[in-house]
Amino acid sequence: MGKVNRRDALKAGAAVAAGHTLLAPQEAKAQLPTQSIPAPDVATEVQGDTFASREDSNPLQAKVVAFTTVSSDVDASVQFYRDVIGMTVVSDAPLPDGITTAPGIGRSGRRHALLNMPEERFGQTVRILEAPPGAKPIRPRPDSGPNDPGLMVLEGGTRDPAESYHALASVGTPMISPPRYYYFRNTMWGTDVDSMSYAPFGPGGEQMFITASIRSDQQLVRSIGIHNGFGSASVTALDQRPVNAFFENALGLKRTSQMECYQDNVSDLIGAPKGSYFLWGNVGAGVGIEVWEVKAESGTVYPCALNKTGLAMLTLRVNDLSKCRTMCAEAGIEPVGEGALPTPENARPDGFTLRGAVGELYEVVQA
């Protein structure tokens, strides 16, 4: 095991997944108007999009509470999250019959482990689901990269990036690069992002970001161990508008911030070619989801499913599941699964599964 170098392996291509089409560059250009549209000769009102205030951005109080990873070696995955990240095993048992019909769930009896940080205030649940025999990865490595739309990484924190990197490197964890420094001025949040991060891969092939804030003026709550768990995830897209529309229509979530990135050290961190450019920001307040719009001519959607390895699904808790169902129905968004996987609090939660705009899976459960 060693460093994973994906910068020279990013491939062009187009894909159709879950009803969403990405056009190859020549097809996209062919659809552009051949003549400019004349300006109106009378005053005309037009509509635009704005960023929501934090107070108005998350009416269902949605929050990511679990990250589902599918692994062909559950023992190795449990050991990694328990012994290296510092999580505690909450349960480790076969799945019961008929608990969910989420895409790829397959047979009953698959091994299913739940892990939490020992301190309740840190991080969400990591769920490890046993992969079926011969399972293929959701995002094939080293072919896939940040220009390929979909669910990309789960993000966690550390008190010290060098200490964290050494802990993972000492057990042979694949990495893209050592920790990289980056800085963003976020006027929408009223605080700057001044961090160091690196991108390791878990035993199931799931990509992570592990980040440490290096600002001395931020009053951060420190964990007792090296790591403080995982609290958010990133979704990449070549066009953020369908992704934003999905979140708003299905869950009432609105974008609260956006920043731009044109830093080669960040490209090194995520395995993108130097000179890459993307926009990124949060959807909703307190949700734990970032949306990235990568400026690239083409990409490949790799749809998530629970019979493929890697980061497969996010579980979102909402305060009114019935209202969420109604919102989805009114927007023409049909669930792709009924029921929900066990959580540390509930062995049979009420919920359903949605497929996002770029092939990602979201399990929605009642708070």
Walk me through what this model shows.
The chain has six helices and 18 strands. It is α+β, with helices and mostly antiparallel strands and 367 residues long. The protein has a single domain, classed as 2,3-Dihydroxybiphenyl 1,2-Dioxygenase, domain 1, CATH 3.10.180.10. Strand 1 and strand 2 form a beta hairpin. The chain is globular, with a radius of gyration of 20 Å.
Averaged pLDDT = 88
CATH topology: 2,3-Dihydroxybiphenyl 1,2-Dioxygenase, domain 1
State the CATH class: Alpha Beta
- The assembly state of the depicted protein chains is single chain
| Terminal residue distance | 40 Å
Count of alpha and pi helical runs? 6
How would you characterize the largest beta sheet? 8 strands, mixed
Give the helices and strands, then pairings.
Blueprint: E1 16-17, E2 20-21, H1 25-30, E3 63-71, H2 74-84, E4 88-94, E5 111-116, E6 125-130, E7 150-158, H3 161-169, E8 180-186, E9 191-198, E10 207-213, E11 227-237, H4 240-251, E12 259-261, H5 264-270, E13 278-282, E14 289-294, E15 310-318, H6 321-330, E16 337-338, E17 351-355, E18 361-366
Parallel strand pairs: 3-6, 7-10, 11-14, 15-18
Antiparallel strand pairs: 1-2, 3-15, 4-5, 5-6, 7-11, 8-9, 9-10, 12-13, 13-14, 16-17, 17-18
State the main characteristics.
8-stranded mixed beta sheet; single chain; disordered N terminus; alpha+beta; 18 strands; 15% helix; 367 residues; 2,3-Dihydroxybiphenyl 1,2-Dioxygenase, domain 1
